[in-house]
Amino acid sequence: MKTINIGLIGFGNVGQGFVKVLSKNLSIIREVYGYNVKLTYIVDPVKGSLYSREGLDLVKVIKYIDRDGNLRSHPNYIGEIHSFQPIYDKETDLIIEVTPTNLVDGEPGYSHIRKSLEEGKHVITTNKGPIALFYRELTRLAEKEGLYLGIEGTVMSGTPLIKTIRYGLSNDINIISGILNGTTNFILTKMEEGYTFDDALKEAQNMGYAEADPSMDIDGYDLVAKASILVNVTIDGDIKPSDISRISLKEYLDEKGYQKNLKYLVYLEINEGRYSVAPKVVEEGDILTSVKGVNNGVVIRTESLGEIFIYGPGAGRLETGYAILTDLLELLKTHMRIKR
Q: Which domain holds residue 144?
């Protein structure tokens, strides 16, 4: 049976979610795809790093992280190692990069992804920063090297929006519009119920939907990153987050207050080359009014099929972990030439 060795860089919520999802699907991957999947590295400067040439016991990894909150007492703990170690290891076939998003320069994810491709490793990432900032560069490099670069989890978590666009609709799309940030949609849902903005934000923070510094969400930076990724996937472009027009939800509410059916929308006019992120009052009966709480919903307007609506979770450790799994399965079907 063929083997694929994986190095996981980053072991926060997404990395942990992936390990949990993978542990439940190892036998299916063996039976259906004919691959023995081995997670040989976990590298995280906070949670701790592990290595096993034979492959880590995923159930044991989950047990230790759930019990201790870190991996330092795990028998395969290897202390502090450089994050590039699994990338330079010739036995590693696939790097999964799930470090925190940085929309300024994409680091450290950008360097992890680029070096992995240069070293002949396939890559799967949920990290929006490198893909939003360097989509064309990284996809061209992957194509040149004959390698797979999976990015499903960068937008809408495990809901298969990117694969739907890339493989089903990309040449037929006129407009993409929708709700792609669960935090702000939760806040607006609470305001519809009568909460003030501050109380709704506090509730979102208490429930873990919003960070202590919520500016990435409420000022739209998360959305412009996702918008640029969707445009580039659709047109194979080189649109940057700075090319997306942005209006802050917080500033809009401070100026105009809450209005019924207010949504914080990505609006991408593909044919016209106009791309924006802005609060908008949608018409009564618009399908986007049904998207509540932390859920996401996207309307894709096509030339041939009319409107297509995609609805589902846009965040969550298991949901995003599942997105990585779908990319892994696509990799096994399309790119793998492992001889081991």
A: 2-158+318-334
